[in-house]
Amino acid sequence: MIIRTLVLFFCSLPCFLLAQSREFNDLPYINGLPAEDSLRRLNLVIPQNVKSPAPLLIWIGGGAWSYVDRNVEMDLARKIAEEGIAVASIGHRLSPATWRDPSLNSGIQHPAHMQDLAAAVKWLYDHARTYGIDKSNIFIGGFSSGAHLAALITMDPDYLKAAGLPSDLFRGVIPISGAFDLVDYYNALLNSDRPELAELHVQAVFGPNKQDLISASPVTYLDNLSIPMLLISDITVQNYTRLFEERIQQTDFRNIQVIYANTLTHAALWKNMSYEEESPYRNYVIDFIRQNYRDHPTSIAK
């Protein structure tokens, strides 16, 4: 495991005791959402024994933008909520993925995933008081395809603006094991042992033109970096993470912590964070939120 520019303030951080939590599942974040639409919904885990409103981590699971399931992220959500942090696991509409399963032959393209995410953020922002959420302490993160979406919504201002949300809404962003330069991602697949994925995977999600990939890439918006970032990568996708890190290093932005889990594959890192009773990578996420919490740290009632 390699850690870069990571500082842990163990003594100065607030002490979060294990919190009981309450869950709200299948909450629609679109007004008038049809009952049969099971995707544009979110699951919310709220810690119960906190004296003040809880910080919120908005979390987008992975699945190649095509088979994301908010429900499989609940083990991770519950473990983070035990530390006094509310977690919203976001569902969104999905893209085709015939390369994985011939039956996955229909769906949406970018920017529909982002529009769904922005709508979910708007719903959570508007309902913060109802659920005991501190709307001044909202963080966003995701794994794999979710990492891409989390990074993009914090770097391309158009999505928050279109949803009527403040541009400084997020306190920090936590992209884990994603791809952030989609032109590079497309070319890497084109030159891999499965070149068909460049079309069936990347173009199916983002469109056939290079400009489509550029406009959907977080690296396009490096000049907009402004909030703290915790960037974590497994060994499988580390080249994409290193490219993102190198591009960020070419800017003046320095509020970034980078961690490489060099002994864990893509799936193994997700499982470690989700299922292990003690996960250093999950702890990095929790500590990052504590470090960047604004004004009044959550205190857990004893």
UniProtKB/TrEMBL annotation:
It comes from Fulvivirga sedimenti. This is Alpha/beta hydrolase. InterPro entries: AB_hydrolase_fold, BD-FAE-like_dom, GDXG_lipolytic_enzyme. Gene3D superfamilies: alpha/beta hydrolase. Keywords: Hydrolase, Signal. The keyword Phosphoprotein does not apply. Residues 1-19 form the signal peptide. It comes from the Bacteria.
